[in-house]
From TrEMBL, chain A:
InterPro entries: Epimerase_deHydtase, Lipid_A_modif_metabolic_enz, NAD(P)-bd_dom_sf. It comes from Cystobacter fuscus. The lineage of its organism: Bacteria, Pseudomonadati, Myxococcota, Myxococcia, Myxococcales. It holds the Pfam family Epimerase. This is UDP-glucose 4-epimerase. Residues 3-224 form the NAD-dependent epimerase/dehydratase domain. Signal peptide: none annotated. PANTHER family: BIFUNCTIONAL POLYMYXIN RESISTANCE PROTEIN ARNA, NAD-DEPENDENT EPIMERASE_DEHYDRATASE.
């Protein structure tokens, strides 16, 4: 099968590309970032998805399946540009899919779209609408892109559409929201709260997307693997130091003193759980995760040990410069 | 000794804890250990709880414990949960459907959820029952705990959600009567304004002001399981009829036990 992957240089997308390539599919990728050491046989084009050259790839390569992972999730990119990429890009993808006879489109979204609230059900099902907009407007474009992709299910019935709402990824690459949050030595927590976090090994996420490409399940699916864990347990097992701070203090400190930068809405994700029920995907796509929650945390820890204390870092730097001797 | 007993019972609790001692709902073995050690003291030594009919609680599989609220704070719920853990064989974790405000409160939300008590939403309840868990429901809701001392044995209106859920999930209902909570926390007034300010439905006031429970003997009486046939989509009048049967059964348990105490009969 000819598969076009949009946003192919992301950590998970690379794994998807290699997984599909290993299963003898023809893989073509588009990204604005290069992938210099891409395996032989995987064709990578450095293009903007919204430009003519990208459409040419749809026309000339005639992919049978398209995996759309070219959304910007980093909250550092904000404003008009982010909206243009996420919403405009998603619209372009589905227009091209329709125009060039693509049979199957996979949209990779996030489970955080369901929103974190004290009165939400613990396990969210696909029947629930994404309702994160009220408390976390920074996610509006992503939620809108997810809903736009979902409408393709009835707008273009000839195109099989799979909307995947994938939980946090964790693994050796240390990319993704949760991994970035855990990267430092100290991890801020909201005092008095300890939400459940649901995560999957990045290889399992890639395997799930490969499975979706091959099985072509039509509909909206939550994608999750092992059971969730309380955030404090993840922090402890990743050998990080949890720093519980009152919410008012955390709001002031976030983005300073080495703490990760988070918009105010994201703080709700440190108070209340977002956990999804993925039974539908497991059944429809016949998918089983390979890594349990313990192996997943261990794989992250093995590749990303906690940074040494600041004092030790300064000492090492001074030693390197020859200012002090060991 | 209490610690040993709690540890031994925790070991027999049939929940799928992982290597970190956490189950798929976030129920934590460590948190349960701490809470049950405290609850065991209150259950055995402080309230000297008398529990009757625990054999009606199934050893495994889905079931719904449905009873009356008694006492201005959740002493009744805590003691029912403790009775299922300390008296049942094998021990069972009764998972209560908590009021929504608890989920928003710092610390309370963590301890409640780590011990398996989630916000009272139909989705949460259905999932737990389909997972063969033991659910604890007080259909009187917050109105039940707001009863003042003179109304301590009365039952206020029951919600009907629990019955639709029981029919939908084919779950047996185990009615229970809780006695003594009204005397343990003799509520003389409820401060609704202060409660709203604190994010709670109300704050109960006792003659000694604080809603701290007195060391009054408490009683829990479990009745025989009630099984209703249906789909959960029946007319309101049908559901209301079933709910009234459960309510009458609970009222009967309470009245019978009050009569026995008045007659001076001592039954186990």
């Amino acid at each position: 099968m000819r598969v076009l992957i949009l946003g192919i240089t992301g950590a998970v997308a690379r794994r998807v590309a290699m997984g599909l390539h290993a299963r003898k599919h023809t893989v073509v990728g588009i990204d604005t970032r290069p992938w210099p050491d891409a395996p032989k046989g995987i064709e990578v084009h450095v293009e903007d998805l919204r430009k003519r050259a990208a459409e040419d790839l749809f026309r000339t390569r005639r992919p049978e399946a398209v995996v759309h992972m070219a959304t910007v999730t980093s909250l550092r990119v904000q404003g008009e540009e982010r909206h243009r990429i996420n919403l405009g890009g998603t619209r372009v993808v589905f227009e091209h899919c329709q125009a060039y006879g693509v049979k199957h489109a996979v949209f990779v979204g996030r489970h955080t779209f369901y929103g974190a609230a004290p009165d939400s059900a613990l396990y969210h099902t696909e029947d629930e609408p994404p309702k994160e907009l009220a408390s976390f407007p920074e996610l509006a474009d992503l939620v809108a892109a997810d809903l736009y992709a979902s409408t393709a299910l009835w707008r273009t019935p000839q195109l099989a559409t799979s909307v995947l709402r994938v939980c946090y990824t964790l693994g050796p690459s240390a990319q993704g929201t949760l991994a970035t949050f855990l990267r430092g030595r100290r991890v801020p927590l909201v005092a008095g709260y300890d939400p459940l976090f649901q995560f999957m090994h990045e290889d399992d996420v890639a395997a799930a997307i490969v499975r979706a490409v091959e099985k072509r399940p039509r509909g909206i699916f939550n994608v999750a693997g092992p059971q969730p864990l309380p955030l404090s347990v993840i922090v402890h097992q990743a050998q990080r130091i949890g720093v519980p701070l009152p919410l008012a203090v955390l709001r002031q400190l976030i983005g300073r003193f080495g703490l990760p930068r988070l918009p105010p809405g994201a703080l709700n994700h440190l108070k209340y759980p977002i956990v999804v029920d993925a039974r539908s995907f497991h059944t429809t796509a016949d998918f089983q995760h390979q890594y349990d929650e313990i192996q997943t945390v261990q794989s992250f820890l093995a590749a990303n040990p906690p940074p040494p204390p600041r004092r030790e870092q300064v000492r090492q730097r001074l030693e390197t410069l020859g200012v002090i001797k060991r | 000794m209490r610690r040993q007993e709690v540890e031994e019972r925790l070991g027999r609790l049939e929940l799928p804890f992982n290597a970190y001692g956490v189950d798929p709902y976030g129920v934590s073995r460590w948190h349960l250990g701490v809470v049950f050690e405290v609850q065991a003291f209150f259950y055995r030594n402080y309230f000297r709880v008398k529990c009757q009919g625990i054999e009606h609680v199934p050893a495994r599989g889905r079931a719904m414990l449905v009873g009356n609220h008694s006492g201005g704070v959740a002493v009744d719920g805590a003691m029912v949960v403790a009775s299922c853990f300390l008296e049942a064989n094998p021990p069972r974790l009764a998972q209560a459907m908590a009021e929504k405000f608890i989920g928003a409160m710092p610390l309370a939300s963590v301890w409640a959820s780590r011990c398996g008590h989630f916000t009272g939403l139909p989705e949460n309840a259905q999932r737990l029952l389909e997972d063969e868990r033991l659910l604890l429901v007080f259909p009187e809701g917050a109105r039940g705990t707001a009863k003042l001392y003179p109304q301590r044995y009365d039952l206020v209106d029951f919600g009907t959600g629990f019955m639709r859920l029981a029919l939908k999930t084919r779950t047996p209902i185990i009615p229970f009567g809780f006695l003594g909570g009204g005397s343990a926390i003799p509520t003389v007034a409820n401060l609704y304004g202060l409660g709203r300010a604190l994010g709670m439905p109300y704050v109960p006031v006792t003659p000694y002001l604080l809603p701290l429970p007195l060391p009054v003997p408490l009683e829990i009486h479990y009745g025989e399981p009630l099984v209703f046939e249906g789909t959960g989509n029946e007319e309101d009048s049908v559901i209301q009829g079933y709910v009234e049967q459960v309510k009458a059964r609970i009222a009967d348990i309470i009245e019978r036990r009050r009569h026995e105490r008045w007659q001076g009969e001592v039954k186990p």
